[in-house]
Every structure is written in structure tokens, then in C-alpha cells.
Automatic annotation (TrEMBL):
It comes from the Eukaryota. Residues 65-115, 136-162 are annotated as: Disordered. Residues 335-450 form the Cyclin C-terminal domain. The keyword DNA-binding does not apply. This is Cyclin N-terminal domain-containing protein. Keywords: Cell cycle, Cell division, Cyclin. Belongs to the cyclin family. InterPro entries: Cyclin, Cyclin-like_dom, Cyclin-like_sf, Cyclin_A/B-like, Cyclin_C-dom, Cyclin_N, Cyclins_cyclin-box. Residues 242-326, 339-420 form the Cyclin-like domain. It comes from Wickerhamomyces mucosus. It holds the Pfam family Cyclin_C. GO terms for molecular function: cyclin-dependent protein serine/threonine kinase regulator activity. Residues 146-160 have a biased composition (Acidic residues). One of its GO terms (biological process) is cell division.
Amino acid sequence: MERTSYRFRTNENADSLKYKLSKTNIQTSNSTDERIALGEVSTNISRNVNTGIGKPAQRIQVFVEQDENKPPEDNVNPENTDKLLETKIPSSVQSLENGTEKTRRGSSERKPLAEIKQNNIQFEDYREGELAVDADLTENPGNDTGFEEEDEDEDDEDAMPDPMMPIINSDISRELATVNKMFYSEQLDEQDEDTYDISMVADYSPEIFNYLHSLEMRMRPNPNYMKSQSDLKWNMRGILVDWLVQVHSRFNLLPETLFLTINYIDRFLSKRKVSLSRFQLVGAVALFIAAKVEEINCPSVQEIAYMVDHAYTIEDILRAERFMIDVLEFEMGWPGPMSFLRRTSKADDYDFETRTLAKYFLELTIMDYRFIGSPPSWLAAGAHFLSRIVLGRGNWSSRHAYYSGYTTEQLKPLAYAIVEACRNPEEHHKSIFEKYQERRFRRSSSYVQEWLHSNEQ
């Protein structure tokens, strides 16, 4: 009896998978061996939907007389839009729709990955006809990892403008120095609740954030790395990030994990050329590492393999993980924008609506290559700045400038760029838009679209 392998697409429902399995002789095993033998697959049929993906799936070995089934091909129709419009930002609008459900941090409950519409992304559909399919890692004798070091002398076909950066001049420096004198004190404020919260480390917070500001520049990716990539284009990065947003949401991971994942990807691509056949592996491994850094309950390597529809073996994933950590020189503690956003939110007494809307604006920036080289502290301040405008919370005060480190003059250009990124959500950031339509995020994405339409009339 011949042993064959089934590759199940995660966008198939349970009934469809059960029908496939009903024609076969199934043997199950609860082995936790890290290696998956040929013909073994991981499926969520045996999982309780209520418990989510946190419960390990059974290993299913399938034996059939002959191979009668082929994995379906993905039909994807990519569209990449560069048309961004401008809008006038008013000083105030009506407040955001009220909601009752808040995001829970560190939750171990995970939704099943079967809800993901795009699983094993077939980037080959986007390749030019002259590009050959790259060999697997084990079939690449010239480079044991499948990745190559970037050459500095490349053409500028995919070059992009300089990344968006905050402006700095003598007037801005004087303004920041003035607000620093106004609010900085070596004596802790007894009226401030954070003084008595040991998790806020109020004694050392100024020094901590000064250090984070230095780290964000040192661990900044090269914003022009795509011109050194022979197989990849900017729209392919957008497809990968969109897929990672879906996976991140289904695993119910923290926002910090998503931003850290994107930073790992961009920094890795800044140092190594990646073939198209290994591009999704880079994204999956980056998420795997970032979850280990940020999460209490992180996905297992078996779940990562399942997430990519077993397009890569467990050994591929573990080897790529070691290689990525080595390329990044074990510098995994990039200070993401969420830490700076919480710091800035202190000026608003941690207003939940403002911070929730700012999170939506922040996630938009990971889809846009213009923000790859931008400091996360500036992005966080700009997202908070725009949230206050949309919600009509008033002007950017000296208190906001102190806690964020940026003035109104520095944040206005960024706010306009984020507004442009909000256009055409179905094409620019579909998964993020759908995510923030949920009640727990106060339906922020829908509210922003209503705000844009009201200001166009």
C-alpha cells in the first residue's frame, strides 16, 4: 500500500476536510516528536473550536491506494496602488462610538487558524516569466541557508525616496528644551498614580526612554533594501505583511509581537538577499522569534509549520531561526512603538479611545514602505497626534511634547502621510481594516472612513 501526503489548505472548512478523510484509512498518534514524517499532516479537525489552536492537534497519517488528490492552486489577484489622496484635517469632530469590550493582554485563548483565507502564499504567481523557481535549502550547495549577502553595487530600479524622518532645527530644539524644564523633576510627584506603581518604574523612566531612543536608531533597517533584492518587490512585502496580520490576530498575540516581527523581517532583508520561494519562511520565522521574545504563551514550531501549510519542514524552520538570529547579531530587543505610545498616553491620562485609534494608525504604517526607516517613537507620537485630531481632543500641548519628545511642527507631515495611508483600505490594508472593525477596537477603522468622507464633502 502506497503512502502519500495530503496538504490541507487552512481556508477549507472542517466538513470539507472530513469528507476527504472519510475515503482514507486513518491512523492517529499523539507523538510529540519534533520531526514530521512524510505523509503526516497537522489539521485542526480534532481540535475543539472553543479551545482554539492552543490545544495540540493530533498527527494524522494517511494511507491510500493511489494519489488521486492534488492540492488546489491559489487564485490570487494582487493589486498595488500608489494613488494616495490628501485631506484637510479639522480641529475637531464628534467622539468615537462607545464600546464595552477591551483587549486582553496575554490571553492564552487562540482562534483556529482555519479561518485564515490565505495560508500558504503562492508568491510564484507574482513572478516574472524569466525568474526560475529557487531550489530548496537542502538543494543549494553554494549557500547552505538559501540566503545571500546583499551586494552594495546594485541598480536603482526599486529605489525609493528617503524615508520619512522628523525635522529638527534650532527652534524645535529650543521648544523641546523649554518643555523639558517645565515638566522634568528629580522629585517624584506624589499626586501621580504612576509614582506608586512599581511596574511604571517612575524613578528611572526618563533614563529608560533616553536609552530606547538611542536603540531605535541603532536597530533601524535600511529603508532602501529592496533595490538589492533580485526576486522581491515592494508589493510582495505588502502581501506578506497582510498575511502576517491575519496569523497574528488568529494566534491572539500582543501588538508588540506584530511590530517586532516586521522589524526582524526588514532588518534581515537589509542584510541578506532572499529568494522568492523562501520569502514566506522569513515572515513565519520572524513571527516565531518575536513571539518568543514578547509572549507568555507562544506558538510551537509545529503550529508554525501548520501555519504555512507545511510548505517548509520543521527542520527548515529551526535552521532558518538560527540563521536569522545570527544575521541580526542576537539584537532582538528592538524598542517598538507601543512603549512610546504608552509613554505619550500619559499626557492624556491614558485615554482608551485615543490610544485605540492610535494603534490602528500605527498598524497602517507597517504596510507602507515609506515608514520602514522612521523612528518608532516618532510614529507613535504621530499616531497619537492624529487620534486627538480625529476625536476632537484639542491641540498638542506642552505636556504631550514632553512625554512624546516631538512638537506639532514635527508631527504634522507625519499626520498627513498617515491620513493618505487610510485611503483605499481594501487595497492598502484590508486585514488591518477588518481587524479594527471589531467592537473590541471600537470599530476604529470604520470610524476613520466616516471621518474622511465627512471632511470631503
